[in-house]
Design goal:
301 residues, alpha+beta, phage-related protein like fold, seven-stranded mixed sheet, five-stranded mixed sheet, 7 helices
Length: 301
């Protein structure tokens, strides 16, 4: 597997949404969102289960022989029920052509609205939302859920240690299938590059993923994204960094959207009769399909 190319993402998104222009604006700005490659889920609620089925026995070989000692696997009951999260902003769609060049204000207004939605989406992704009442099922809540399920998916180092070894341990804890991505602040991102250079004679391991749309750092099979929303995380944010790992495999994370990801309402007149604005909302939800789907690393730099 590999991160979706920009063309693959566009093709997929065009099947999901009637508002392709807004989707392309999102794709151009939202590298983290695009890495997850959204899939559709038409129902209002999504049920996710982490419980294994009943114990399976050996199938009996004699005529009329029932299965042996262990009970047959029962249908597994759902454990978590989540709803679509929703983040909205406002943008100008049409305006009087005498004000400026036609299309200029519209384009910039929509870009700003999508940027605001995306920034809020990332903020909630790394947060502690519980996945109901229009909130994301946040990473911090997942880590708590995973611990409750018996999976310790976190490590905290309050003294300086080898960040590359810590990353290797994180990768080992994640499922062995699929791709891994990691969100961190710029200090953590640059520290990884520094440690790679310190190995001697080894170039900073950046993969030139032009098909994806940008260049990103990779190490140990993980693609790293730095974002300012991670700046204040960690035990002491001035001297350490937090790394949020997400697996994109069958036991990992899945980004779902409803039948139509965008909700558009309007027009609503503002400033007399010159501008007409529309409310724009993006509906989605992050699902963690097993208690091994993500990993939290706090690393003293």
């Amino acid at each position: 597997m590999a991160l979706p190319t920009q063309a693959q993402w566009s093709t997929n998104w065009n099947k999901l949404s009637n508002y392709n222009a807004l989707g392309e604006l999102l794709a151009n700005q939202a590298h983290i969102f695009r890495a997850f490659m959204p899939t559709t889920h038409d129902k209002a609620t999504i049920k996710v289960n982490w419980t294994d089925g009943g114990g399976a026995g050996m199938v009996g070989v004699g005529a009329g022989t029932a299965q042996s000692a262990s009970a047959a696997p029962a249908q597994v009951n759902d454990t978590f029920t989540k709803e679509m999260s929703s983040f909205g902003s406002q943008a100008i769609i049409g305006f009087d052509s005498n004000l400026q060049t036609v299309g200029w204000e519209e384009r910039h207004s929509q870009t700003a609205a999508i940027r605001a939605i995306y920034t809020k989406w990332v903020y909630n992704l790394i947060g502690s939302g519980i996945g109901t009442a229009h909130a994301m099922w946040g990473f911090e809540t997942f880590i708590t859920n995973a611990a409750t399920a018996g999976s310790t998916m976190s490590e905290t180092n309050t003294t300086t240690t080898d960040v590359l070894n810590s990353i290797d341990r994180a990768v080992t804890a994640l499922p062995s299938t699929g791709d891994n991505i990691c969100l961190c602040d710029s200090d953590g991102y640059n520290n990884i590059k520094k440690q790679i250079r310190a190995l001697g004679g080894v170039a900073s391991n950046e993969v030139k993923t032009e098909a994806f749309g940008s260049e990103f750092l990779t190490f140990s099979g993980v693609t790293f994204f730095y974002t300012e929303t991670m700046d204040d995380l960690g035990t002491s944010a001035t001297i350490d960094a937090q790394f949020d790992f997400f697996n994109l495999g069958d036991e990992g994370c899945e980004l779902v959207v409803p039948g139509e990801p965008f909700i558009i309402q309007g027009p609503k007149q503002t400033k007399g009769e010159f501008d007409e604005v529309f409310d724009i909302a993006l509906n989605s939800q992050m699902l963690y399909t097993s208690p091994r789907a993500a990993y939290k690393l706090i690393q003293r730099l």
